[in-house]
Amino acid sequence: MTAIRSFAELDEDAELLWLAGFAVAADGGWIVRAVTRGLITGKLRQHLLPIGLLPLLAPGRCFVGGRPAHTAQRGGLETIGIDDVGAGEEVTSDVVPPEMIGADGRKRGVQRLLRYRWNGLDVLVPCIELVRYLFIHNKTMANALMRPGGLMELCRPEQPGFHPHLHLHFTGRMPLSALKPTFVTEFAWTAVDPEGRRSWDSVAELSTGKPYVLLRPLRIGPSTWMVRAIRSEGMLLVLELLHATGRKHPCDTLRYSHPSVRKTTASFNPNIAVEPGSPPTPRPSREVIDYVVDDGDRSTRTDVHQSALLLLCHKIWNGITVCCRGGIHASFREAVWSPWRCKRHRITVFGVCRASGFNFGSR
Q1: Lowest CB count within 10 Å: 30, 140, 246, 319, which one?
Q2: Residue 233: its pLDDT value, please?
Q3: Helix, strand, coil shares of the chain as percentages rounded to 5?
Q4: Given this model, what pLDDT does residue 72 score?
Q5: Bridge partners of 45?
C-alpha cells in the first residue's frame, strides 16, 4: 500500500489520534486535519492531508514508515446496540476525558460527536467516523463528499425513493475498478435511498467553513454495530465503526453500467441480511450476474480490466452456475478460470466466480 508522505517523513512511527475537520487547501481542494502521536517520543503533530486519504484514517491505527499497520494501537472490539441512530445527541469533544483521546491532558471542545445510551454507558461516536463508515468507501467518494453535485458527477441522477428495478448509469469519473457488488450496493443506498441521500448532502451543508464535521444522522434502528472502542468511567468512545445493520436498500434488483464497458449489464439483489454478531463483511443473498455481451463483431475490442466477470449457465457447486470448459478449477467456495470464448453464448468470460452466500470482499 502506498505510504502517506506526511507520515513517512516523521522520524518515528506514529498513531493516528484524532481527525479535526475539513478545510480548503490553497489549490481549492479539500484537506482533512489529522493529529498523530509518535510511538517513541509521544510527540503530537498535526498534518494537513488530502481528503482522498480519508478511507485510511481511523483513529487508533498505527502507521509504520507512513503505511497503515495491520493492527491498531488502541481500542478493543465491541458489539453494541443503537435503538435509533437518528436520536443521537450532538455533543462536543469537551465531554471526552483527555486520557481517552491520548492527548496528554489537552482538551479540545470543538469536534462534534453523537451520544447514545447503551447498557448503562454513554456511547460517543465522532461524526467524522460515522461519515467515514457510511460514505467514504474509496478515494473517489472521499473527493466527491464536499464538492457540490459530487454524486451527480459520478452517476446519472435518479429520483430518491424505492425503485423495484434500479439501474445506475455511472459516468467516466467513476473508476471502473471500483465497481464491485459491495460498493455498487453502498453507492445505490447513498445516492437513491432518501435517508442516505439526505445524510450525504448534510455533510457539506453543515461542515463547510466549520472547524468540525457534522451530519444529520440517519433515522434507522434498531441497529447493531461492531466497533473498535475504548471504555472509561461509564463511557465508550468509538474509534472505528466496522459494521452496522438496519439500513434498507432502495430496490429489489440493482443493475449498473459504465461508459468504458460496451454493452455491459450487471444485475443482482442488493438486500443483504446480516445477523447480529456476524462478520463485518456483508454477504450477498444471491449470485451476482455480471457478464459481457460480445456481438461477434471482430472489430470490437473487450477491455480485459473491466469488472464484468461471469455468465451463469451450467450448474457446478452449491448453486453456482457458470459457463465453463475443461480448464476450470473448482472448489466448494469458488471457481477460477482463465479468459476464454464461449461460442454457444457468443461471449468472452474472465475472472473469479464466488459461491452464493460467501463474501465478495470488505468495505
Answers
A1: 319
A2: 84
A3: 20, 35, 45
A4: 78
A5: 36
pLDDT attached to residue 193:
95
pTM equals 0.73
CB within 8 A of 308, min separation 6: which ones? 261, 264, 266, 290, 291, 292, 350, 351
Distance CA 196, CA 360 (A): 23
Q: Nearest-CA neighbor of 176 among 296, 57, 250, 264?
A: 264
Q: Residue 11: helix, strand or coil by DSSP?
A: coil
Distances (CA, A) of 120 to 19, 116, 275: 27, 10, 24
DSSP state of 358: S
Residues 335, 323 contacting (CB under 8 angstroms): no
What letter would DSSP give residue 158? -
Give every CB contact of residue 265 below 8 A, 6+ residues apart in sequence: 255, 257, 291, 293
Distance CA 18, CA 239 (A): 9
Give the pLDDT of residue 314: 33
pLDDT at 129: 96
The CA distance from 242 to 280, in Å, is 6
Helices (H), 60-211: 98-101, 127-135, 139-145, 150-154, 181-192, 194-207
Q: Within 13 Å of residue 214, how many CA atoms lie on the same side as its CB?
A: 18
Question: What pLDDT, in 10s, does the model give residues 135-189?
Answer: 999 999 999 999 989 999 999 999 999 999 999 999 999 999 999 889 999 999 9
Helix H or strand E encompassing 354: strand 347-354
Cell numbers describing residue 162: 424505492
In degrees, to the nearest 5, what angle opens at C-alpha 82 toward C-alphas 80 and 83? 140
The separation between the first and the last C-alpha atoms of the chain, rounded to the nearest angstrom, is 16
Determine contact, residues 221/279, Cβ cutoff 8 Å. no
Positive or negative CA dihedral for 263, 161, 148, 86? negative
74-125: per-residue pLDDT in tens?
889 999 999 999 999 999 998 988 888 876 655 567 899 999 999 999 999 9
Query: Where along the chain do its domains lie?
Result: 5-69, 76-244, 287-363
pLDDT for 105: 57
Residue with cell 470488505: 362
